[in-house]
Amino acid sequence: MIFKSSTQKTLIALAVASSVMLSGCQTTASTLTEQPQSTVASVVVTPANTGSSAITLEQAMAHPDWLGRQAERAFWAADSKTVVYAQKQQGNELRDLFTQAVDSQAASQVALNKLHTLGAGDAVYSADRTQQAYVFEGNVFVKNINTGAITQITHDSAKQSKPQFLTDGNLAYRQANTFYKVDLATGLQAELVNLHLSDAPKGVTEPETYIAKEQHKLIDYIALTHKNKKDKQAFKEQLNQQNSSIANAQFYLGKGNELVDVQLSPNGKALIAVVTEIRPWRDDADIMPNYIVDDARVKAEKVRRRVADEKPQTSQVIYIDVTEQTQTTLAFDTLPGFDDDVLAAVKKENYARDGKTYESKKEPRAINLMMDWGWDQSAIVWNKAGTHAAMMLEAWDNKDRWLVTVDAKNSKLVSQHRLHDDAWVNYAYNDFGWLNNSDTLYYLSEETGYSHLYKKPLNGKATQLTKGQFVVSNLTLTDDDNAIYYKANVEHPGLYEIYRVDPQTAKSEQVTNLDGMTDYKLSPDQSKLLLTHSKIMAPPELYIADVKANTTATQLTHTVSSEFLTKQLIAPKIVAVPSSHTKQPIYAKVYYPADYVEGESGKNRKAIIFNHGAGYLQNSHMGWSGYFREFMFHSLLASEGYVVMDMDYRASKGYGRDWRTAIYRQMGTPEIEDLADGVKWMAENANVDTGAVGTYGGSYGGFMTFMALFTQPDLFQAGAALRPVTDWAHYNGPYTSNILNHPDVDPIAYEKSSPIYYAQGLKNRLLINAPMVDNNVFFQDSVRLVQRLIELKKENFETAIFPVEPHGFVQPSSWLDEYRRIHKLFKESL
């Protein structure tokens, strides 16, 4: 169900900041420089309950096709008048593609023989915006935007990628590790750079050993053969140098290396390649038994290694001058802090526990390209002219991020910005690039405690462009440099709108005002926005809006099913729970029982707290949740008389750096403190009996369920842990090492944060739901904990296994079985 944004909203200031219920608010001014979030006491219109037909557990856990098949992977067509999107077929996992004009309510399915004409979401454009280049099924196409004519550049099975228009108007693309240039006027294809992951060939070498030298002296045939080889090599070198018709762009990046990333300059004159030593992603023993396979045997699935088995790894940055045919490896020793012992205090603490003394010393740290988990850009970015390149680098120990530029003349890296964090540098909010018309960088940084936008001239000081207690993400720069569009939660942590800032004046203005969760894509002609917007009670739909302040958006798609709209669902209220441990409140969704009367007394309500997964994820926002099954389950529980709370505990996304890093070296401590505050709030504000509260969650939420029941055994009377982490040393490295360092360096953090060390604290009922083919949180996690509970002689736990399910369940029958067990647990225990 879509709720229209009110043109005027009434903000009511409350004297007591005990709770907040809101669905949206709007800044009164069209421009802002430093806009604080809405105060805890601000209250606005909340969503209404919907439908009249009761939701059942079977329906809530059914295949989501019944909700309506929403538009996916939407992007602009080259003409800026048409939108392309995918839609799932009914009853299977295939997708069809549709096009829809921005001024139409009708979509057209695209025939299979026309799919190559649509362009792509990552299509690139020529400098004059008259041509579009893209890849379809591994082949390169160029579209004339004015005429619509399409030219297929390649037609083979070799798989091309990364098309880019060069400053001379021609096109380049990558095939494997070779870059080609295509003259679009003549069709001539030329090899620009051919990268080899091997050592350079040695050519004809002179004899080195005594007997080899004597062989050449004594045997004329050997000497003559050697001379002929040298003559042939010399001739070949002269031919390559003097005849321009021959491709001669071979570069050798070292035997035993693999290519991490490579980016060609827009002028085609230089290239930056980053390589690292080839290492297996797993060890031989890293397997997962799969018991339900088509041949009725047990299949040993290969899985990733654990954080406990990771070893430091560094990269090499290689600058290639295509014109001069030279390559140079750029050292990291120009980066501030490149050899700092950033973990000295942690090591000292761990050494002391073992009765040893740690002596700090400087040594080069392992450094690699930044790996932002949400990026659709490279960590290597050239400026528009191809004269300067910037890179985002990160330390393997997760404490530093450097934005650097390449000084090709002096063969060195120049640090433009260093972001250091004693906890860990965020693996989100790392967007960066160059302004189009000056040698000025723009980038996101959490240096103030929130992700904000900055600009910095190549040889100048940085300027902060956005300010306030909100987070900025998803940057898009206009061609004229007059605006950078961004997504931000300015008005409230759970309300995301689109804004734009003038990089010259640092003045921001709000563009959208849709009250919910909004994402965007700027049209190729930069006159319109394609918006993906949802609300708490409404799955995402596509909208179109002109690019102007406080724009009006027009809904383009209407995919939500009538069946869903008829379901009786209870709308959660977003509240701000006062924290006992931090100045910021803990934002949470609360589902009140259908028969709840404000101000009722008696402390007789039962309650459940849901713990979202991923740790660094935001769920108490005003858009449609990825936990849509849980949303319906919570509505069902509320209809049965439960109060249900869904908290954005400390570590959740969207609340700034301090909120994110509160769990550093102590996962499971701040979060459970927040859950305790949630129980207290429900007792004081929702008539909840603190002796009748349960909790549940999956993945990180399952881990939290364990920690709650093990470390504060009287807080909850029952808990269900789904696909749960039990020992962080067994989880993956990229996620875990941020928060807990590595086990060989910081075992204290792992022991303090892993539920298996606290299992003796279990007192009340526990349900463990474990998928057996989970390649994210291994089934072994649950197996080890169960054995620990058996050895501790615990009696009040049970385990359910799901033989065919991965980390994210797929089969509706499994979803239903799992949630029937959870429902039964709470009915029997609370």
The CATH topology annotation of the domain at 44-60 and 563-828 reads as Rossmann fold
Give the helix/strand class. Answer: alpha+beta
Rounded radius of gyration (Å):
30 Å
Strand sequence of the main sheet, in spatial order?
Answer: 42-43-45-44-46-47-48-49
The residue ranges in which pLDDT falls below 50 over 5 or more consecutive positions are 1-44
**CATH class descriptor of the domain at 44-60 and 563-828:** Alpha Beta
**How many H/I helices?**
13
Mean pLDDT: 93
**Which strand-content bin applies to the residues?**
25-35%
Could you give me the name of the CATH homologous superfamily of the domain at 44-60 and 563-828?
Answer: Alpha/Beta hydrolase fold, catalytic domain
Which second-level CATH architecture of the domain at 44-60 and 563-828 applies? 3-Layer(aba) Sandwich
- Distance from first to last alpha carbon: 33 Å
Organism: Pseudoalteromonas arctica
GO molecular function: dipeptidyl-peptidase activity; serine-type peptidase activity
Domain Dipeptidylpeptidase IV N-terminal: 380-539
Protein name: S9 family peptidase
Describe the structure.
Pfam families: DPPIV_N, Peptidase_S9. Residues 380-539 form the Dipeptidylpeptidase IV N-terminal domain. One of its GO terms (molecular function) is dipeptidyl-peptidase activity. Residues 1-29 form the signal peptide. Keywords: Signal. By secondary structure, this protein is of the alpha+beta class. Among the domains are: 44-60 and 563-828, Alpha/Beta hydrolase fold, catalytic domain (Rossmann fold, 3-Layer(aba) Sandwich), CATH 3.40.50; 70-193, Methylamine Dehydrogenase, Chain H (7 Propeller); 210-242. Strands 42-43-45-44-46-47-48-49 form an 8-stranded mixed β-sheet, sandwiched between helices. Strands 2-36-35-34-33 form a 5-stranded antiparallel β-sheet, with no helix packed on it. The protein has a 5-stranded mixed β-sheet with strand order 13-14-15-16-17, with no helix packed on it. α2 (210-218) crosses α3 (220-242). It is globular. Mean pLDDT is 93; it is low at 1-44.
